[in-house]
Design brief:
Strand order of the largest sheet: 6-5-4-7-8
Shape: globular
Largest sheet: 5 strands, parallel
Radius of gyration: 19 Å
Oligomer: single chain
Distance between the termini: 18 Å
């Protein structure tokens, strides 16, 4: 991987700690204990599980898939990092607890001093955002990478919502476009149960980014304006079950990956498609969820292999999962 430079051979971008070197002994899996939001039980006032990231890591450790030593520790995105996508006005608006309460849908945050909101709510989200940006760079270097957190697909450069305060998907892609040679086309495959209106608004009209979004069209956010950015739109109905879901995942993900040949793929893997999830409204079994993820993994692996063989260079195809 080589960094983009200006005409004088010097980097023209702000300094960031998110693109530092990672020891080769680490797996390209990014996480930080600070991802998890816990504060006086307020996190329980929303059906979104704000401690799920730690549960995932705990399971992987128990099964001996990972250790503390071989996981990449995420770093918090700085204000300069966030300004790559976000407007100054939007970031300043987050200094009002009322705004954060609206974005996270936790009304009681309104009564808390913003310093506490910054520390207990926004800092974990900024750390997850930093993790997504780091995972983008790692995917270029290693061929794949996972950020255990992030996926804040309802946030755009100037507006948050749906528990998403920072546009980490947009940031990861724009960091790569601006800083890394050879990265000029991206595909987003979004399988969260909700429409990813944040990155869609950010990339509306940007021909470098192909978006496939598969979601329950009856639920939040119903953003018709943002839908114009979706190149492959798959709208699901209430209670969609395994057979129909898996058929559509296979058909449309293959179609998306055959339609364009991206330099980077961002896969937003939502678990809210599971039957009984209070937000998603779909009826996918755990086996169906595993099957969908396996299909995506196989499709991405085949694309990487195809691109590598076509170009004769192992560094020509990059996947962020």
């Amino acid at each position: 991987m080589s960094a983009k430079e200006d005409n004088e051979g010097k980097s023209s971008f702000h300094h960031t700690d998110l693109y530092g070197s990672i020891p080769p002994t680490c797996l390209p899996i990014v996480y930080h204990p600070g991802y998890n939001i816990t504060f006086m039980g307020l996190e329980k006032l929303h059906p979104f599980d704000s401690g799920k990231w730690g549960k995932v890591i705990r399971f992987l450790k128990e099964e001996q898939f990972i250790t503390d030593e071989n996981v990449v520790e995420a770093r918090e995105a700085s204000e300069e990092d966030l300004l790559v996508v976000h407007t100054k006005r939007y970031l300043c608006s987050l200094k009002w607890s009322f705004v954060v309460a609206t974005i996270t849908e936790i009304p009681l945050l309104v009564i808390l001093p913003n310093c506490l909101v910054q520390q207990k709510v926004l800092r974990p989200l900024r750390t997850q955002t930093g993790g997504t940006i780091m995972a983008g760079k790692l995917a270029v270097e290693r061929g794949w990478a996972i950020n255990v957190g992030g996926g804040f697909h309802h946030c755009s450069g100037d507006k948050g919502g749906g528990f998403c305060a920072y546009a980490d998907i947009t940031l990861a892609i724009k960091f790569l476009f601006e800083r890394v040679e050879g990265i000029s086309r991206a595909t987003i495959i979004d399988l969260d149960a909700h429409q990813g209106n944040g990155h869609e608004r950010d990339f509306l009209g940007d021909t470098r980014v192909f978006i496939m979004d598969m979601y329950n069209h009856n639920i939040y956010p119903g953003d018709e304006y943002a839908k114009r950015a979706i190149k492959r739109k798959v709208e699901l109905d209430w209670g969609t079950e395994d057979s129909e879901y898996l058929q559509k995942v296979e058909l449309h993900s293959e179609g998306a990956l055959n339609e364009v040949r991206p330099d980077i793929i961002v896969y937003n893997a939502g678990t809210d498609i599971l039957d009984g999830d209070p937000l998603g409204g779909l009826s996918i079994s755990p086996q169906g969820l595993i099957g969908a993820k396996a299909m995506e993994r196989e499709g991405l692996s085949q694309l990487v292999t195809h691109l590598t063989q076509s170009s004769g260079s192992a560094g020509s195809a990059h996947t962020a999962v």
